[in-house]
Amino acid sequence: MPPSNQTRVLLLNAMEKREKTLFRLEQGFELQFRLGPTLQGKHVTVYTNYPASGELFYRRKFRALSWHNPTGREDDSDKYCKLDLQISGSYQYYFSHENEKSGGGYIVVDPILRVGADNQVLHLDCVTLQTFLAKCLGPFEEWEDRLKVAKESGYNMIHFTPLQKLGLSRSCYSLADQLEVNPDFSSPNKKCTWSNIGNLVEKMKNEWNMLCITDVVYNHTAANSEWIRVHPECGYNLVNSPHLKPAWILDRALWHLSCSVAEGKYRDKGLPPSIENDHHLNCIRKIIWEDIYPKIKLWEFFQVDVNKAVQQFKTLLTQGNRKTKSDPNQHLQIIQDPEYKRLGCTVDMNVALATFIPHSNGPAAIEECCNWFQKKIEELNAEQFQQTAYHQEQAVTCLLETVVYERLADHGPKQGSVSRKYPLVTRYFTYPFKEMTLEEEELLMHQPDKACHFLAHNGWVMGDDPLRNFAEPGSNVYLRRELICWGDSAKLRYGNKPEDCPYLWAHMKKYTEITAKYFHGVRLDNCHSTPLHVAEYMLDTARKLRADLYVVAELFTGSEELDNIFVTRLGLSSLIREAMSAYNSHEEGRLVYRFGGEPVGSFVQPRLRPLMPAIAHALFMDVTHDNECPIQHRSEYDALPSSMIVSMACCATGSTKGYDELVPHQISVVSEERFYAKWNPAATPSTPGEVNFQTGIIAGRLAMNRLHQELGAKGFIQVFVDQVDEDIVAVTRHCPNTHQSVVAVSRTAFRDPKTSSYSKEVPQMCIPGKIEEVVLEARTIERNVSPYKKDEHFINGLPNYTVEIREHIQIRESKIIKQAGTAIKGPNEFVQEIEFENLTPGSVIIFRVSLDPKAQEAVGVLRNHLIQFSPHFKSGSLPDDRSAPILKNLFSSIASKLTLADLNQVLYRCDAEEQEDGGGCYNIPNWSPLKYAGLQGLMSVMADIRPKNDLGHPFCGNLRSGDWMIDYVSDRLISRAGACAEVGKWLKAMFIYLKQIPRYLIPCYFDAILVGAYTTLLDLAWSQMSSFVQNGSTFVKHLSLGSVQMCGIGKYPSLPNLSPALHDVPYRMNEITKEKEQCCVSLAAGLPHFSSGIFRCWGRDTFIALRGLMLITGRYLEARNIILAFASTMRHGLIPNLLGQGTHARFNCRDAVWWWLQCIQDYCKIVPNGTDILKCPVSRMYPTDDSPAQPAGALDQPLYEVIQEAMQQHMQGIEFRERNAGPQLDRNMRDEGFNVTVGVDHETGFVFGGNRFNCGTWMDKMGESDRARNKGIPATPRDGSAVEIVGLCKSTIRWLLELSKKKVFPYQGVNIKRHGKIETITYDEWNRKIQGHFEKLFFVSENPADPNEKHPNLVHKRGIYKDSYGASSPWCDYQLRPNFTIAMVVAPEIFSPEKAWKALEIAEEKLLGPLGMKTLDPDDMVYCGVYDNALDSDHYNVAKGFNYHQGPEWLWPIGYFLRAKLYFSRLIGPEMYAKTVVLIKNVLSRHYVHLERSSWKGLPELTNENGQYCPFSCESQAWSIAVILEVLYDL
Q1: Active site includes 256?
Q2: Is 1417 considered catalytic here?
């Protein structure tokens, strides 16, 4: 059994119909259903008919699966329900959402086959099958001697054609009685029974290690079956299928024509019994059109009796019936007579009366009306006449095509003269009565007791839809003569369910039970024409008796999608595929590659992985029993090489009895009556009826079958097909555990070597590695015996051909190889160059190849060291006695010394960060540079390549070409010293072995090493974070890695130095000055644009992201240091926008200080003893607003004093001009823009500030285009009181008020100078002012007459909150933007819940995008959702990205929107809360998908409208990741 720890994940998405997708699984696998992004958060139920443990399977019985959410409730990324698959078969699943079916599909679980008395597993890829025509086995007591040929030839499965009593035609597939053993198998003194056959099958399984399968034929029965005479309702007859009556009349007419032609009655019309040329064909066409069709008048079956209809209409009119049309689109049309009587069709008289209305009641008006009606009926009849003529035309065409094939074509049966035995065309219906004239026969058609015995024959229709039953009403196949008919078999009519034809269902169920009782599997004959529901029912019956039933079928649908419908619904184990369909050796090789295995050097896949659509498992046969003989099509020399190519396929393989014996003709399933030969080791080539290893290619077949079974059993699952030249195909099977290969070189002979020329020059072949032995070399040779003569009693093959075979020899002993040299391809790559001298057409040679001994040892040692990551590597591993000391330790213990800051170096760092250190990201030639220098850069690419085994990717090419990437990975880390260097050294030691293996294996082992290291490092990262992360979902964990990605220490410190008096500050040795320096972690705003130099750290970005990336993840000390570092730079009561290490800081934003204060509040609340931070020393870089930068320690203040200073300065009012104002500071800013003013409105308590030439909030786009004349003009000044700043200020005041009451903060308020006096404004007073004024002034009332509304004429949306209050352009206040949601989260107390909810609903409708929030109402005249920073134009609103915040969808506001929804939905009630959770999970699922797919493993800064990718956005933005973590934390 397969290892039970294999898990496959099937992602469910709304409305996804997967009925045509094949999902194959093995027993012992766990299948998990998980919710895709369209369903996350919703209440979804998954139903399946896979039975619960201990219950039986019933196809219609579904049960709901229960959900598991291993990490709790914050999101649905890990929620799954599962099936432990232990029973083979086909199972259905579907899922519903709010009781509505939303999608579904099927899964197929493979059977486990067992052979031998000890029940060893026979893997499906080990199957070697041979087909026997049962009737050619002779009497039962002789079977063993005949079947022994298959055993001695190395087959492990026999397929018997049906063993039942045959019908009159003696075709193997026309069964007279499905329940009775063929009496031919009994001898006069011993009757053969099912249990005799069952005992033999059991003996073959236990003693010969062979399984047996047989056909089941559900679609037809022999026309002479006794039971169908008694139960004619089981077929399509003229009583239960009256639509066939016209076809039956035509069929009888053609039979009479055929009899007349046979009797020579049409000689005078140019048609003799012997049909030989086109003239005869034209005569047939003429006779049918002129004599037959006019006589049988088929059109009458579809027409109305005009006189009768007119009379009826006239009667109704005269009686005064009048109708009006209920439906104006209703027109008069013919209603088909269900009994199909001539002129029996009718029309709807109600429609007629409503259509033809007399203008008065007089007789003349009625007469006129009747004439119109008559004319219409005649028109309708004429249409039917025309339609019938089309059918008749097709019928003649099809009939003549059949005549051509059967009598004239070179590839046809050449039937000769027309006779009763070989009529002109096969009859479509049975006719069990004595012959009469056609007119007399037509009368029988209307007598049910006779008509029920006219049964439609079965057959097949070229190019027909296999899911449509061609005998049902609505199909005209029989009338149009499109059926290629089997005149010996009646088609069976099951209906839709057992109740529709009880006898037939019961009879076939018994037949199925007999088959399943005695055989290990079934071949579904004529599968594509067997009604699916019938096959399903019968196979369910069979599997009840034999759970691991092997089910095979051959499909002729011509489409993989249609094939899949049959494979999934029926649970087919293998589809029969045929090498004879290949038109040359190249195509034959392609089929080998197509039908199984993975590429050589494929990656090791994780045990838990997505369930991928599969192609059906193949039973690949060199020839099937119902196809033409390859010797006739190709040559006798091709039998050996083509069967070798097939045998090397990584799937089940098979052949047909007779192929190995080189029987030079097709063994007909209908006419062959001779017996197969028996096994006799002592027989001579010309002994009749006996064979052995001297016969045909049997000796070669044994070697091939043994090898096929060995390759399947020992895990040679990798396949490489090399088309050496037009005739030579080399197939390699490779074992990924031992790295042994078997290479089979076959020289095909599609053309007869005696009559076609083959090149004497055979290309030299290079085989990588060391050839251990020649497993087999074999050549087809001619020998001198009497030539082939068809034996009368036994099926015999060509005696004058055999194989010369030698097994398990050394290269030097080979007769096919001229010489073998060894060349060195690379440093550790040995290649054996083979020169052939006797690889003649019809030869094969097979090499067993190992890696070079040194490489073999290196692989073994590598696998040994990889066991620490996965037990998968145990097989093929070797102990390592001489390894580097560092490899004696587990990687996890070496990595355990890494801090989160070290992990930033090991895993991430984009190109700009690396360049600062003098490096850069690895650039793959002909592709692109990696996103990160650390392991994530490589893992992102490999995550795409690995599942698809895309070994042709430039990444893999680069690894195979040289060691550059390998060295880059280890050397980069070794150069960093400390714990990072140790990781680098471990990798380098592993890579020493990696470099010693063949290049084609390097991608897969490089991947294995990195996957092991990477997963260990991720676990290490999470282990250093908070319990919220450690116990969180996959989504939470992957988001938390954003903290590692964004928080790092560069070569140059980004933060100003902290006070020397502060404890726990990290230090390092400066490499250049050799002095101790502080090395605090700083937080990048976004990658790649804001990651290094002075553009790395921004006050606003840092403090919007800090709570999510550092506090929630548990990085408290680093968060403290960042808060204090920014505190040290305070000037004018503000925190810098761009930090510039403090010395190049810009104090041009009004909001950063409030985000900083909010973070201090969050720190105090989240961190244990968090309020201690208030007493921490802050070294003031700028003790006064105009002082130059001071060194750390010059002036220390406790943090609470710095906080108080910020509050005090705001209330006092801030007014200054930026230092260095002018184009050298900002080349776009106008002069007035450098003037910064901030203050507090003493009446409302609102913070206000800014002017129309600067932009002091996060919406800070400054115009840059001269051409559009927007240069120096902010797109969104947001001056006045910005809503989020008012909210943040309120939050801070409320918090300081609480702290001062608890005596943790020593100030109760702020003191300001006004009119020369000191005034105190308490925090309590300030708090009440904002509380009292906020909603009054910010809410846009639903009431048009609201007295608080200053500018009612500017209102265009009611029920929202203004974006600002008191802007210099008043209309800006009224723009709908997402900023009010920030205030809702930080200061929910200033909103009344009902109004807040209304505003949130409007925001959801207007602003919510797939990943972010629109930054402006799409109804606004300046809205533009596509950001292009490079495009300069005359367009004022968009030139040079002027619309940065005027529509594009930014991600970080969505976090506040969702958190606000969550908060207020709780206040509104449980129902609304539940709905909101669904919405949030659904929105977040899209972020999860983006995060998983992003090669940056981050969330972008913004998207264009409707979530479209924006190339100007940062690919991973700190605040975008942080806010989503915060939402999950709130959930």
Answers
A1: no
A2: no
